[in-house]
Amino acid sequence: MDKKFHTNLIVSSSPHIVTDADTTRLMGTVILALCPALIASCYIFGIRVLVLAIVGMLGCVAFEAFYNAITHKKQTVGDLSAALTGLLLALNLPSNFPIWQELCGCAFAILVVKSLFGGLGKNFANPAIAGRIFLFISFASNMSTWPTTRLDATDAVTGATPLAVFGETGAMETSIKDLFLGFTGGACGEVCALALLIGGIFLIIRKVISPIIPCAFIGTVFIIGCISSGSLTGGLFHIFAGGVMLGAFFMATDYVTTPKLPLGQLVFGIGCGLITMAIRLLGSYPEGVSFSILLMNLCVPLMNRLSYKFYCSDAAKKFGGK
Amino acid sequence: MSQRKHLPSAHVPHHKNTAGHETEVMPVPDVVKICMSQNIGAPCQPLVQKGDYVKVGQRIGDVDAFVSAPIFSSVSGTVIDIEQSRGSMGGFETLVVIETDKKQEVSEEVKVPTLETFEDFIKAARDSGVVGLGGASFPTHVKLNPKNPEECEYLVVNAAECEPFITTDNREMIENGQDVLDGMKVIMKFLDLKKGIIGVESNKPAAIENLNRLIAQNEIKDIEVCVLPSSYPKGAERVLVWETTGKVMNAGVLPAQLGVILDNVSTIGVFAEYLKTGMPIVRRRVTVDGDAIAEPKNVYVPIGTQIADLVEFCGGYKKEPKKIIMGGPMMGRATKSDESATMKNTSAVLAFSQDMAEVKEETACLNCQRCHSVCAFGLLPSLFADFYQKKDLDSLNKFNVMQCMECGSCAFICPARRPLTLMNKLSKIMIKEASKK
């Protein structure tokens, strides 16, 4: 036949189109959602926060690139997950934290917690949380000296966080309004509850994260806070002070280190809330969000097993039932 | 309709670029290649030999099996070859190659059927050669002849057309709305069905309006249009049965077992046309689209037309085609060459250039569970993939992989670009093969 045909076309299994929302875009959306908190923090603590954030992001990306290069793996820094880890880690530090120590934290988070376990998708714990705890144990004094805000009327350079005061005296000195807006000492990214809430709700609306874990986490903290203090203000104090907002929306919702099914996620969120409040009310540390998330990360396989059992028993009537 | 909860679905871009294009009739090509395996079930045997002269509507392939449908010549001309060729499913298919004389003489076999008894009706359905035109190509006369006719009460017409790009069902409802309703009435009469429901996605307002106008005009009481949300996969058989009637249909169950007769809207339209004119299915409406096509259109295509001829009628390629899909982009099959010929179930021919054809590289699973959240049946594709890689048949069974209908939503939504649908298909094949042993 004289007709010319196009042969050797690409043949692949259906579907032949895919969504635009790939891993890079998801991670980018989370970074975008952290921007309000970053901006608020720059306003509250000064421009050094931005330096920490940029160093953290670049540091994590560099360590991941380094690891992939020496192990001859495919370069994965383009998926932005390392950048997100770096930003989260930076937002968990005091604003006057030494840069070299921050880089130690990045190295631990990326090299030990993430890459050695197989990289993105295989890590058992949230790298940013593990990095923060590593720094907390290694550089304890730097990690618990909290600069006061630029808006502080006194001349003091550092001061106790609201939770530290609460841990020592049991008093809730800071007003709820200051806690909500972030005019208080603490890690640079966690103080402004308002900005974190905006970012978290943005993520939920964009369906990047499911609301189950944040709601269960914050709800548990709020209820225990109310009961333990006997007042609504106590509940509000506990959800706005410390790292609950940052942890609940951005760290406890990390896909890789949380349970797969809604039931498991609910248990995960409640567990985080319980451990956080147990440490705050009963433990010697003033704050327990990162420990609670790390501990619950370790229990994820158990929660997955629980929810699978439930899922399989339910599976027959699943379709059509919902 | 009632406040029934919709099944989970994915928001797939619609790309209904050709929705407003009136169907154009394509000139008869020089050569057609009519495949003898155009339906689920037994393939047909050619009834003609090399050198025979055939006319439009002449039966050229048939087989003596229940699940089968005859095949008719779409052109008049001379059979120049009967060849074996590797089909899109990998097996060999018989093709009847006809060189056309462009006269389009109509065969003497074509005459209007008489409908008196139920047997006449089923015979007419088979003689029309109609199969499920939505893509599954299940012989229609089998569907219309359920084992439990007394239990059937609904006629559900699938006009959801949830696949992106395709607009043939949409055009059928706009251009042949009356035929669709007439066909429904005949089917409902012979099967004694109480209610006809046409399930249409909300992104086809012109079609919905036209059907509603015709229903009001003809004062039809027992047929209604059910508007569905425009999200994929509302046109999947099991999803549609749930959305329109509220009946739960699991894998391996036929709609008739639930008292539902389900047919595609174009299928019914073509069947009604046959009842009026006696012309069996020799042409079908095809959407030609994709970023490599110069002029996307809806075209009436003689069955057996080669894709290259069809594309030529649509202005040719404007970019180098890298992938050509027969059917929709979510469930259609990619073909190796544009030499392939259209069949009864070819609802669309999509040609993609490099930008859209590229198979994206797979990255690590994030455990985001988007695949689970878009699955209409709430399955766990990311787990299936892990089990598949471990060849863990027990777990695959336990988590119900056999319920998967391969709609492609999971692989579409996966941010890590994992070929989840492919792994589900392979898992199902693996289980079927293991159970044979």
Write a structural description.
The complex is a heterodimer of chains A (322) and B (437). Helices cover 61% and strands 1% of the residues of chain A. Chain A starts with 22 loop residues before the first helix and ends with a helix. Chain A has a single domain, classed as Ammonium transporter fold, CATH 1.10.3430. Chain A has helices spanning 23-45, 48-70, 81-91, 99-114, 127-138, 162-169, 176-181, 193-205, 212-229, 232-240, 244-251, 262-282, 289-298, 300-318, and strands at 146-147, 158-159. The longest helix of chain A has 23 residues, at 23-45. Chain A has a two-stranded antiparallel ribbon. Among the domains of chain B are: 118-277, NADH-ubiquinone oxidoreductase 51kDa subunit (Rossmann fold, 3-Layer(aba) Sandwich); 370-436, no CATH class. Chain B has 14 helices and 17 strands. Chain B has helices at residues 118-127, 140-143, 168-175, 177-191, 205-217, 237-245, 265-277, 307-313, 354-357, 370-374, 381-390, 393-398, 409-413, 420-436; strands at residues 24-25, 31-35, 45-46, 53-54, 59-62, 71-72, 77-86, 92-100, 154-159, 195-201, 223-228, 260-264, 283-289, 297-302, 323-326, 333-335, 348-352. Chain B has a 6-stranded mixed sheet with strand order 1-14-13-17-15-16, sandwiched between helices. Chain B has a 4-stranded antiparallel sheet with strand order 2-8-7-4, with no helix packed on it. In chain B, strands 11-10-9-12 form a 4-stranded parallel sheet, sandwiched between helices. In chain B, helix 4 crosses helix 7 (265-277). In chain B, 56% of the residues are buried. At the A-B interface, helix 1 and helix 14 of A face strand 15, strand 16, helix 13 and helix 14 of B.
